[in-house]
Design brief:
Elements lengths: L14 H14 L12 H8 L3 H13 L3 E4 L3 E4 L8 H17 L4 H13 L6 H10 L5
Antiparallel strand pairs: 1-2
């Protein structure tokens, strides 16, 4: 199986994190289906020109996140997240966000930093909480 990912050797982001982010994004977007087999550690490492330990760490991190499962003699399989939301709508919103950010001349690193900050911030559960958070400076309960 061929997995379309790329590693930027000049990036300051560790190779295992680059690989993890790309595979996780493809699973979340539905591009990799539930039960789909990922390449073996050695095959993917060879294809990308990186150490097998880097791919193994990526697969362990993905397994810890519940995105894949590894079984002896079977390999590493995608465990698609439950379909609790319209993934196409979320994917479309992500693409719109990136397009808007690039229209405002943000670099990919700055876009990534914005998304990371949003993920680290307190969750805003609904419009009422959002309005209260913005209007009063208080965190939602």
């Amino acid at each position: 199986m061929t997995l379309s990912v790329r590693i930027d050797l000049a990036s300051t982001t560790p190779q295992y994190e680059q690989l993890r982010a790309q595979i996780a994004a493809r699973i979340t977007a539905g591009e990799l289906a539930d039960g789909q087999r990922l390449p073996t550690v050695r095959a993917l490492a060879n294809d990308l020109g990186i150490a097998p330990g880097t791919v193994a760490r990526t697969y362990r991190d993905l397994e810890a996140s519940g995105l894949v499962t590894t079984r002896r003699r079977v390999g590493t399989l995608v465990t698609a997240p439950p379909a609790t939301l319209d993934r196409a709508a979320v994917t479309d919103a992500a693409h719109r966000f990136v397009r808007t950010a690039r229209d405002h001349a943000l670099t990919d690193a700055e876009i990534h930093d914005l998304v990371s900050a949003a993920l680290l911030g307190p969750p805003i559960r609904d419009q009422h909480d959002r309005a209260r958070t913005i209007g009063t400076g208080q965190l939602p309960t």
